Structures are given as structure tokens and as C-alpha cells.
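Troubleshooting log. The previous structure file for this entry was overwritten by mistake, so regenerating from the original sequence record. Sequence copied from the archived sheet and checked twice against the printout by T.R.
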Amino acid sequence: MENKYFLPDWKDITLEGYELELATPNGWVTGVFPSVLEKNRELDECTPDDLQKLAHAVIRVPYLTKEQIEAEGWFFCNILIEDDETDYDIIVEGFMLNLSEDHWFQMELLPDHQIKIMEKYYENELSQIWRMRYDGPCPSINEFRTLCKWFKIK
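Regenerated output below.
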């Protein structure tokens, strides 16, 4: 059975809304850092005390799932990843996010928690541009949201 969670390195945790699960005596609690460390606390600036608590906490993060990607506005579909203008195009299952009729992003999930994000748009009526935006690791929704923010996707 494939492991559904990983243990992030503490320095990978961004301070603005990093989703994680925290071990408590009553089981795992899902939340957002740093507010998950204290019940009913609003997300605000992280304090040195928060980092100290995090260093001693048992945390885990779920790997990126199809449902999380769809919740971010992408839809699951077949995507064209190679067009050699013959009958041998390569189509795989993936995700698409349409920005307009002429501009969209495609994403392919790869083994070992890797992804490829490609931007596609029409330069004119005859010319479609394909631009690889990212090809690398993306273990969780946290990294996925960061990538989308970096590439101004949405």
C-alpha cells in the first residue's frame, strides 16, 4: 500500500497557511500552521514560540491528491502532451485550467510526486504556443499552491 503522507522538513513549512496534520493525544488534527498549534487562534504572524512548538510536534502532510487539485479549480481530463501532427499524438490523463478560450494550463501527474505544468495559448489563429512552466517535485497542496502563485495561475 502506498504511503499517503510524508514528513516535511521543518524549513519547508511556509509561515502563511501551510496545511498539515498535527498528532494529538486524541488523534490527528488537520489545520493550518501556525493556528493549528493553538486552538481557536487566528492565523497571524508566527512567533519564536510557534517555531519552538513546531520543532517538538509530530506532524505529517498528505501527498497531493486529485480531489485537492480539482478543489483549486482544475478539471480532470485527457490532455495532449505531444503533437507531432500525425496520427501518433500522445494523450494522457491530466488536469486543465482554462483562463480563456485561447489560454489555458495543463498539468500531468507523474510518478514519485512529480508534476509537469504547461501553459498553452494561441498567438494568432494559426499558431499555438506551448510553454513548459514547471517540471519537478510537488509533494503536497502547499507546494502546488506556491507554484500556482509563482506562475500567476488563476
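The longest strand covers residues 90-100. Archived copy saved in two places this time.
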